[in-house]
Write a structure and sequence with these properties.
Largest sheet: 9 strands, mixed
Number of domains: 2
Low-confidence stretches: none
Number of strands: 15
CATH superfamily of the largest domain: Aldolase class I
Number of helices: 16
Distance between the termini: 28 Å
Bound molecules: S-adenosylmethionine, iron/sulfur cluster
Mean pLDDT: 96
Radius of gyration: 21 Å
Shape: globular
Length: 372
């Protein structure tokens, strides 16, 4: 089983918190042509069979002309062998959701859609410099619901201006609209993003850490009441509707990434394409190297396993890790795991180490303690 990720590096407007690779220029066709060449070249010599998931992410794939998206999909099918039940997702922004786009995406072959809502509160959306408003988001979800059984919405908490009340409003909307899948992220402030600079210059106020922690608790209890399974730290779904593409990442499956900034993984090497649209185009056109690679050491492989599995509902399976990598984490990190259990940050379920609700809030600290 392998996944394909296509990175579409364009957005209409820059959100202040975003650290993903994108440009607001409009040379969509040029980039898509280079992505088509990259797929044909297959310079990383990936085996191209048994593809179980395809994900068009970004940036904002929904702003690209559908004729270009169709060309990429045709090239993927021409160059790879795709499983019949393949999950095929497109990321979209609410202001791009029209009946015509939905119809075209279904015709092209998408069977799942991921919508970036962030919040239903107009004041918070404005502070984040989002292009859409509450009404756009609600009307988009209503349209998507009619055509896609499998779709997801992205929500963020801990954003400037957000409170317990704004979050309660978001949760009421979620209950009304009842999407099958929701990714809920706590806002990360990355260096070099506009929000980082705004905070430093006192131009924007972030919520306190105690408020963010309260928001986290409210999300956990309310989502459970609504019948969602918290199958990964940021991911909630109704029974059987988890994201298969993301689950593959967390289960150490291979993936091929095409497009500027896209990452690939073949269980031995990690590859990352250059994060610059112009350079990507030039290097592809001139058949020059457009990516870097790193061979993973055993320690890196063990730590990847720990870091990804600890995020999931099943957690780290001690025997499975021992079988794959020849180490017994329970022995190697005995004192740390004992301490984290006593502090109610992790629990042992049989052979598995799983995060508690308390642990989920300080996952970075836990990862630091149990990686090797
Ligand atoms: C790469 S974006 C692409 C989706 C689409 N362009 C959009 O913004 O709606 C995927 C999701 O990542 C989340 N995200 C982006 N930057 C984030 C940050 N700094 N902290 C937490 N979540 C973030 C947002 O919820 C966003 O919807
Ligand atoms: S959050 Fe989405 S729409 Fe906003 S800049 Fe990032 S990729 Fe673009």
């Amino acid at each position: 089983m392998s996944g394909i990720y296509i990175h579409i590096p364009f957005c209409k407007k820059a959100c202040i918190y975003c650290d993903f690779h994108f440009s607001t220029l409009k040379n969509h066709k040029e980039i898509i042509n280079s992505i088509l060449v990259e797929i044909d070249l297959n310079q990383k010599e990936f085996k191209k069979n048994n593809i179980s998931t395809i994900y068009f992410g970004g940036g904002t794939p929904s702003i690209i002309e559908n004729s270009l998206i169709k060309k990429v999909m045709q090239s993927i099918h021409k160059n790879h062998s795709i499983q019949e039940e393949c999950e095929i997702t497109i990321e979209a922004n609410p202001d791009d959701i029209t009946d015509q786009n939905i119809k075209s995406w279904k015709e092209i072959g998408f069977n799942r859609l991921s919508l970036g809502v962030q919040t239903f509160n107009d004041v918070c959306l404005k502070k984040l410099n989002r292009i859409h408003n509450r009404e756009d988001a609600i009307s988009a979800i209503k349209k998507i619901k009619k055509e896609f059984k499998n779709y997801s919405i992205d929500i963020m908490f801990g954003t400037p201006g957000s409170t317990i009340e704004t979050l309660k409003e978001d949760l009421i909307q979620i209950k009304k609209l009842n999407p099958p899948h929701i990714s809920i992220y706590s806002l990360d402030v990355e260096k070099k993003t506009p929000i980082h600079k705004m905070i430093k210059n006192n131009k924007i106020k972030m919520p306190s850490s105690s408020l963010v922690s309260e928001q986290f608790d409210l999300i956990s209890t309310e989502m459970e009441k609504m019948g969602y399974i918290n199958y990964e730290i940021s991911s909630f779904c109704k029974e059987g509707l988890q994201s298969r593409h993301n689950s593959n990442y967390w289960c150490n499956e291979k993936y091929i990434g095409y497009g500027p900034g896209a990452h690939s993984y073949d269980k031995k090497y990690r590859y990352w394409n250059i994060r610059d649209n112009e350079k990507y185009i030039n290097r592809i056109n001139n058949r020059q190297p457009f990516y870097e690679q790193e061979k993973l050491t055993d320690t890196q492989k063990i730590n990847e396993y720990i870091m990804t599995r600890i995020r999931t509902k099943e957690g780290i399976n001690i025997s499975d890790l021992e079988k794959r990598m020849g180490i017994n984490l329970m022995t190697l990190k005995k004192e740390e795991i004992q301490f984290l259990s006593e502090e109610l940050m992790v629990e042992n379920f049989g052979d598995n180490i799983v995060l508690t609700e308390k642990g989920k809030k300080i996952i970075d600290h836990i990862v630091e303690k149990i990686t090797v």
